[in-house]
Amino acid sequence: MTLTKTSFSLLADVGGTNSRLAIARDGVMDQKTIRRYANRGHSGFEAIVTQYLAEEGIAACDDICVAVAGPISNGVARMTNLDWEIKPEALAKASGASRAAVLNDLQAQGQALGHISKNALRLLVDGQTAATDATRLVIGIGTGFNCAPVHETPKLRYVAPSESGHITLPVRDEAMLRLARALAGSDGFASVEDVLSGRGLVHVHTHLHGPTRMKGEDIMEALDQGDSHAKETARLVAKILGVVIGDQALVHLPFGGIYLCGSVARALAPHLVALGFIDAFRDKGRFSEFLGSFPISVIEDDFAALTGCAAYLRALRNA
User: What pTM, to 2 d.p., does this model score?
Assistant: First the structure.
Protein backbone atom coordinates (compact mmCIF):
# COMPACT_ATOMS: atom_id res chain seq x y z
CA MET A 1 0.00 0.00 0.00
CA THR A 2 1.25 3.49 -0.84
CA LEU A 3 0.97 5.76 2.17
CA THR A 4 -0.06 9.33 1.51
CA LYS A 5 -0.39 12.34 3.76
CA THR A 6 -3.96 13.31 4.46
CA SER A 7 -5.76 15.68 6.84
CA PHE A 8 -6.06 13.75 10.10
CA SER A 9 -5.61 14.36 13.81
CA LEU A 10 -4.04 11.63 15.90
CA LEU A 11 -5.47 11.12 19.41
CA ALA A 12 -4.09 9.01 22.24
CA ASP A 13 -5.02 8.06 25.79
CA VAL A 14 -1.94 6.63 27.55
CA GLY A 15 -2.50 4.71 30.77
CA GLY A 16 -0.09 2.85 32.99
CA THR A 17 -0.66 -0.48 31.22
CA ASN A 18 -2.27 0.23 27.84
CA SER A 19 -2.52 3.01 25.28
CA ARG A 20 -5.51 3.70 23.06
CA LEU A 21 -5.13 5.61 19.80
CA ALA A 22 -7.67 6.95 17.34
CA ILE A 23 -8.06 9.24 14.36
CA ALA A 24 -10.17 12.38 14.20
CA ARG A 25 -11.46 13.74 10.91
CA ASP A 26 -12.49 17.40 10.89
CA GLY A 27 -12.12 17.42 14.67
CA VAL A 28 -14.48 14.47 15.27
CA MET A 29 -13.13 11.17 16.56
CA ASP A 30 -13.85 8.10 14.46
CA GLN A 31 -14.56 5.29 16.94
CA LYS A 32 -13.92 2.67 14.27
CA THR A 33 -10.23 3.68 14.29
CA ILE A 34 -9.69 3.05 18.02
CA ARG A 35 -6.92 0.54 18.70
CA ARG A 36 -5.46 -0.64 22.02
CA TYR A 37 -1.77 -1.42 22.56
CA ALA A 38 0.06 -2.87 25.56
CA ASN A 39 2.74 -0.44 26.70
CA ARG A 40 5.16 -3.14 27.80
CA GLY A 41 7.49 -4.25 25.05
CA HIS A 42 7.70 -0.82 23.42
CA SER A 43 10.80 1.34 23.81
CA GLY A 44 8.64 4.43 24.13
CA PHE A 45 5.26 5.81 23.18
CA GLU A 46 6.61 7.07 19.86
CA ALA A 47 7.06 3.45 18.75
CA ILE A 48 3.32 2.90 19.28
CA VAL A 49 2.54 6.03 17.26
CA THR A 50 4.65 4.77 14.35
CA GLN A 51 3.03 1.33 14.48
CA TYR A 52 -0.49 2.73 14.63
CA LEU A 53 -0.05 5.09 11.68
CA ALA A 54 1.43 2.28 9.61
CA GLU A 55 -1.50 0.00 10.43
CA GLU A 56 -3.95 2.76 9.49
CA GLY A 57 -2.11 3.46 6.24
CA ILE A 58 -1.34 7.08 7.13
CA ALA A 59 2.08 8.54 6.41
CA ALA A 60 1.62 11.55 8.68
CA CYS A 61 -1.05 13.56 10.46
CA ASP A 62 -1.67 17.27 10.79
CA ASP A 63 -1.66 17.37 14.57
CA ILE A 64 -1.52 15.08 17.57
CA CYS A 65 -2.80 15.29 21.15
CA VAL A 66 -1.92 12.76 23.84
CA ALA A 67 -3.65 12.39 27.22
CA VAL A 68 -1.37 10.84 29.84
CA ALA A 69 -2.21 9.36 33.24
CA GLY A 70 0.35 11.34 35.20
CA PRO A 71 1.62 14.85 35.92
CA ILE A 72 2.74 17.15 33.11
CA SER A 73 5.64 19.54 33.65
CA ASN A 74 6.55 22.10 30.98
CA GLY A 75 4.58 20.11 28.43
CA VAL A 76 6.46 16.86 29.19
CA ALA A 77 4.86 13.76 30.72
CA ARG A 78 6.91 11.31 32.76
CA MET A 79 5.24 7.95 33.29
CA THR A 80 5.17 6.60 36.83
CA ASN A 81 5.30 2.88 36.03
CA LEU A 82 7.34 3.05 32.81
CA ASP A 83 10.68 4.56 31.87
CA TRP A 84 8.96 6.82 29.36
CA GLU A 85 9.07 10.54 28.71
CA ILE A 86 6.46 11.86 26.31
CA LYS A 87 7.55 15.15 24.73
CA PRO A 88 5.68 17.25 22.13
CA GLU A 89 8.72 17.50 19.84
CA ALA A 90 9.19 13.70 19.85
CA LEU A 91 5.49 13.19 19.13
CA ALA A 92 5.66 15.63 16.22
CA LYS A 93 8.66 13.80 14.76
CA ALA A 94 7.06 10.35 15.09
CA SER A 95 3.73 11.43 13.60
CA GLY A 96 4.82 14.05 11.08
CA ALA A 97 2.49 16.54 12.79
CA SER A 98 3.02 20.29 12.72
CA ARG A 99 1.39 20.64 16.17
CA ALA A 100 1.71 18.32 19.16
CA ALA A 101 0.12 18.65 22.59
CA VAL A 102 0.39 16.64 25.81
CA LEU A 103 -2.41 16.79 28.40
CA ASN A 104 -3.00 15.14 31.72
CA ASP A 105 -5.77 12.57 31.30
CA LEU A 106 -8.11 14.54 33.56
CA GLN A 107 -7.47 17.68 31.53
CA ALA A 108 -8.58 15.70 28.47
CA GLN A 109 -11.75 14.66 30.29
CA GLY A 110 -12.42 18.33 31.01
CA GLN A 111 -11.90 19.23 27.37
CA ALA A 112 -14.49 16.57 26.45
CA LEU A 113 -17.32 18.21 28.40
CA GLY A 114 -19.99 19.44 26.02
CA HIS A 115 -18.78 17.04 23.31
CA ILE A 116 -20.00 13.82 24.96
CA SER A 117 -23.35 12.29 24.06
CA LYS A 118 -26.03 13.04 26.67
CA ASN A 119 -26.75 9.31 26.67
CA ALA A 120 -23.27 8.79 28.13
CA LEU A 121 -24.00 10.98 31.17
CA ARG A 122 -25.73 9.54 34.25
CA LEU A 123 -27.31 12.36 36.28
CA LEU A 124 -26.95 11.72 40.01
CA VAL A 125 -27.99 15.06 41.42
CA ASP A 126 -29.88 17.84 39.68
CA GLY A 127 -28.94 21.46 40.30
CA GLN A 128 -29.64 25.00 39.22
CA THR A 129 -29.49 26.14 35.58
CA ALA A 130 -26.18 27.89 34.97
CA ALA A 131 -24.64 30.13 32.33
CA THR A 132 -22.86 28.37 29.46
CA ASP A 133 -19.51 29.78 30.64
CA ALA A 134 -19.95 28.65 34.25
CA THR A 135 -17.07 26.79 35.86
CA ARG A 136 -17.31 23.00 35.86
CA LEU A 137 -15.41 20.40 37.85
CA VAL A 138 -14.19 17.06 36.51
CA ILE A 139 -13.22 14.35 39.00
CA GLY A 140 -11.42 11.12 38.11
CA ILE A 141 -11.80 8.05 40.32
CA GLY A 142 -10.04 4.99 38.95
CA THR A 143 -6.47 3.79 39.35
CA GLY A 144 -5.99 7.04 41.25
CA PHE A 145 -7.99 10.13 42.22
CA ASN A 146 -7.79 13.67 40.89
CA CYS A 147 -9.98 16.64 40.17
CA ALA A 148 -9.60 19.75 38.02
CA PRO A 149 -11.70 22.86 37.43
CA VAL A 150 -12.81 23.61 33.88
CA HIS A 151 -12.87 27.31 32.96
CA GLU A 152 -14.18 28.91 29.77
CA THR A 153 -12.16 31.83 28.40
CA PRO A 154 -12.89 34.03 25.35
CA LYS A 155 -10.53 31.91 23.23
CA LEU A 156 -9.78 28.53 24.76
CA ARG A 157 -11.14 26.30 27.50
CA TYR A 158 -8.67 26.03 30.37
CA VAL A 159 -8.54 22.91 32.53
CA ALA A 160 -6.21 23.54 35.43
CA PRO A 161 -3.74 20.75 36.29
CA SER A 162 -3.95 19.29 39.77
CA GLU A 163 -2.79 16.47 42.04
CA SER A 164 -5.80 16.49 44.35
CA GLY A 165 -5.57 12.79 45.15
CA HIS A 166 -2.65 13.47 47.46
CA ILE A 167 -4.36 15.90 49.80
CA THR A 168 -5.12 14.81 53.37
CA LEU A 169 -7.91 12.29 53.89
CA PRO A 170 -10.74 14.11 55.70
CA VAL A 171 -11.95 12.99 59.13
CA ARG A 172 -15.55 13.78 60.11
CA ASP A 173 -16.42 11.03 62.58
CA GLU A 174 -14.99 8.09 64.53
CA ALA A 175 -15.29 5.66 61.59
CA MET A 176 -13.29 7.95 59.32
CA LEU A 177 -10.74 8.58 62.09
CA ARG A 178 -10.18 4.86 62.60
CA LEU A 179 -9.73 4.41 58.84
CA ALA A 180 -7.27 7.31 58.58
CA ARG A 181 -5.21 5.88 61.42
CA ALA A 182 -5.21 2.43 59.83
CA LEU A 183 -4.08 3.82 56.46
CA ALA A 184 -1.39 6.14 57.81
CA GLY A 185 2.02 4.71 56.96
CA SER A 186 5.36 5.29 58.64
CA ASP A 187 5.01 9.00 57.93
CA GLY A 188 1.61 9.12 59.63
CA PHE A 189 -0.15 10.42 56.50
CA ALA A 190 -3.27 9.10 54.78
CA SER A 191 -4.34 10.64 51.46
CA VAL A 192 -7.65 10.88 49.65
CA GLU A 193 -6.33 8.51 46.98
CA ASP A 194 -5.69 5.87 49.64
CA VAL A 195 -9.50 5.48 49.77
CA LEU A 196 -10.91 6.90 46.53
CA SER A 197 -9.29 4.61 43.96
CA GLY A 198 -9.24 0.98 42.91
CA ARG A 199 -6.67 0.06 45.54
CA GLY A 200 -8.51 2.31 47.98
CA LEU A 201 -11.53 0.02 47.80
CA VAL A 202 -9.26 -2.85 48.86
CA HIS A 203 -7.79 -0.75 51.69
CA VAL A 204 -11.24 0.04 53.08
CA HIS A 205 -12.48 -3.54 52.67
CA THR A 206 -9.40 -4.86 54.48
CA HIS A 207 -9.84 -2.31 57.27
CA LEU A 208 -13.49 -3.28 57.81
CA HIS A 209 -13.40 -7.03 57.18
CA GLY A 210 -9.81 -8.24 57.44
CA PRO A 211 -7.23 -9.30 54.85
CA THR A 212 -8.64 -10.12 51.43
CA ARG A 213 -7.47 -11.39 48.07
CA MET A 214 -10.21 -9.40 46.36
CA LYS A 215 -9.34 -6.64 43.93
CA GLY A 216 -11.32 -3.44 43.57
CA GLU A 217 -13.36 -4.83 40.67
CA ASP A 218 -14.16 -7.95 42.73
CA ILE A 219 -15.55 -5.79 45.54
CA MET A 220 -17.70 -3.86 43.05
CA GLU A 221 -18.98 -7.11 41.54
CA ALA A 222 -19.87 -8.36 45.02
CA LEU A 223 -21.70 -5.07 45.66
CA ASP A 224 -23.75 -5.58 42.50
CA GLN A 225 -24.69 -9.02 43.82
CA GLY A 226 -25.86 -7.64 47.16
CA ASP A 227 -22.95 -8.78 49.35
CA SER A 228 -23.28 -7.17 52.80
CA HIS A 229 -19.53 -6.74 53.37
CA ALA A 230 -19.08 -5.09 49.98
CA LYS A 231 -22.02 -2.81 50.74
CA GLU A 232 -20.47 -1.72 54.04
CA THR A 233 -17.19 -0.98 52.25
CA ALA A 234 -18.93 0.98 49.50
CA ARG A 235 -20.99 2.95 52.03
CA LEU A 236 -17.87 4.26 53.77
CA VAL A 237 -16.20 5.01 50.42
CA ALA A 238 -19.32 6.84 49.19
CA LYS A 239 -19.43 8.90 52.39
CA ILE A 240 -15.81 9.96 52.06
CA LEU A 241 -16.34 10.67 48.36
CA GLY A 242 -19.24 12.95 49.23
CA VAL A 243 -17.21 14.83 51.83
CA VAL A 244 -14.25 15.30 49.47
CA ILE A 245 -16.35 16.43 46.50
CA GLY A 246 -18.32 18.78 48.73
CA ASP A 247 -15.07 20.41 49.82
CA GLN A 248 -13.89 20.73 46.21
CA ALA A 249 -17.24 22.22 45.19
CA LEU A 250 -16.84 24.97 47.78
CA VAL A 251 -13.30 25.65 46.56
CA HIS A 252 -14.16 25.88 42.84
CA LEU A 253 -17.90 26.79 42.76
CA PRO A 254 -18.73 24.60 39.72
CA PHE A 255 -22.20 25.96 38.89
CA GLY A 256 -21.79 24.37 35.44
CA GLY A 257 -21.77 20.93 37.06
CA ILE A 258 -19.58 18.28 38.63
CA TYR A 259 -18.60 15.34 36.41
CA LEU A 260 -17.23 12.07 37.79
CA CYS A 261 -15.23 9.79 35.49
CA GLY A 262 -13.06 6.70 35.75
CA SER A 263 -13.63 3.00 36.35
CA VAL A 264 -14.45 3.28 40.07
CA ALA A 265 -16.85 6.17 39.47
CA ARG A 266 -18.69 4.16 36.79
CA ALA A 267 -18.86 1.08 39.03
CA LEU A 268 -20.20 3.04 42.01
CA ALA A 269 -22.62 5.18 39.98
CA PRO A 270 -25.73 2.92 40.28
CA HIS A 271 -25.28 2.71 44.07
CA LEU A 272 -24.09 6.17 45.16
CA VAL A 273 -27.47 7.71 45.98
CA ALA A 274 -28.60 4.71 48.05
CA LEU A 275 -25.24 4.62 49.85
CA GLY A 276 -25.69 8.14 51.24
CA PHE A 277 -23.37 10.01 48.90
CA ILE A 278 -25.67 13.02 48.49
CA ASP A 279 -26.16 13.49 52.24
CA ALA A 280 -22.39 13.42 52.77
CA PHE A 281 -21.84 15.85 49.88
CA ARG A 282 -24.27 18.38 51.36
CA ASP A 283 -23.25 17.94 55.01
CA LYS A 284 -21.60 21.35 55.28
CA GLY A 285 -23.54 23.06 58.06
CA ARG A 286 -24.95 26.40 57.00
CA PHE A 287 -23.72 25.81 53.44
CA SER A 288 -25.69 22.58 53.01
CA GLU A 289 -28.49 24.23 51.05
CA PHE A 290 -25.97 26.11 48.91
CA LEU A 291 -24.42 22.81 47.79
CA GLY A 292 -27.75 21.95 46.19
CA SER A 293 -26.79 24.40 43.44
CA PHE A 294 -24.35 22.00 41.78
CA PRO A 295 -25.57 19.19 39.50
CA ILE A 296 -23.52 15.98 39.59
CA SER A 297 -23.20 13.50 36.72
CA VAL A 298 -21.09 10.44 35.94
CA ILE A 299 -19.35 10.20 32.55
CA GLU A 300 -20.02 6.67 31.29
CA ASP A 301 -18.16 7.13 27.99
CA ASP A 302 -14.91 5.16 28.26
CA PHE A 303 -13.45 7.09 25.30
CA ALA A 304 -14.09 10.57 26.68
CA ALA A 305 -10.37 11.38 26.99
CA LEU A 306 -9.93 10.76 23.25
CA THR A 307 -12.94 12.97 22.55
CA GLY A 308 -11.34 15.64 24.71
CA CYS A 309 -8.08 15.45 22.77
CA ALA A 310 -10.00 15.96 19.53
CA ALA A 311 -11.91 18.92 20.98
CA TYR A 312 -8.67 20.50 22.25
CA LEU A 313 -6.98 20.29 18.85
CA ARG A 314 -10.07 21.68 17.13
CA ALA A 315 -10.12 24.61 19.56
CA LEU A 316 -6.42 25.32 18.96
CA ARG A 317 -6.99 25.43 15.21
CA ASN A 318 -9.92 27.83 15.59
CA ALA A 319 -8.29 30.12 18.16
Answer: 0.94
